[in-house]
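Reopening this one. Same input as before:
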Amino acid sequence: MQIELLKGALLLQIHLEKNDIEYDDNICLCFEEPCHEDEHIFRGDQTNLYLTSSEARMIANALLAVADESDISSKDSL
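Same output, byte for byte:
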């Protein structure tokens, strides 16, 4: 799964690293920055973070909670 962030300047690919299936941290968040080097957030063109399933769930739950909060705040401001 690929998600474009920052108008395409940052790409996030999320996948199961099948070569590391025997390890707990086999969920890969791969950040790629096709933008100009001066605009990079990370030092390299590609940065990989490996997560366990429980870490991935914590991030997913936190993102959903903040997204819900944002939706509620947006509706309240109307």
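So the earlier flakiness isn't reproducible anymore. For the record, Residues 33 and 42 are 8 Å apart (CA to CA).
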